[in-house]
Amino acid sequence: MSNTNDELIQLRQALEVPAAKEWEYTVKLLLRLMGEDPNREGLRRTPLRVKKALQFLTSGYRQDPAKILSRSFAVKQDEMVIVKDIDFYSMCEHHCLPFFGTCHVAYMPDGKIIGLSKIPRLVDAFAHRLQVQERLTTQIAEAINDQIHPLGVACVVEASHLCMMMRGVQKQNARAVTSSMLGVFRSSDKTRTEFLTLIRSSLA
Ligand SMILES: [Zn+2]
Q: What is the pTM of this model?
């Protein structure tokens, strides 16, 4: 953390920007670098709006996944728990452009469950950071694994990446699919197949 702070101080000094103005000046600088006039009418409040948008889209850095999952309930249930079709919006760390899609999460409890609403909150805590899809997928699965020690966790993420769609290869319909399978979802074909079937089915 201290390195991060040192670098922040160095960057501030290099830009000679007072801390309270750094978002405004940085966004104005970006606008200038893009060829815009940050002082024209339509862009006057843009630095403030960009600041608010980026702070929201990176609010995951200020959330603790362990805290989100800290309340669990003892149960006898040993059936798979699935939360599917969780919409998410994230930003790729390579281009700072959005990638978005759906996330499907399942776990096989081992005497403990978490509130269902905690799973979408966990997804957002990791999605609202600069990410790569592969890491987002494993972080979601591992957080559940570490926190409630179930028999297994599965996470599948399907996403469209604006950095591929708007630039680069410009493929409009390519969607990336990533998965992380832990415990019984990795070791048992039957469990994994049941999960994959349920996330494709309209009945799950
Ligand atoms: Zn990208």
A: 0.91
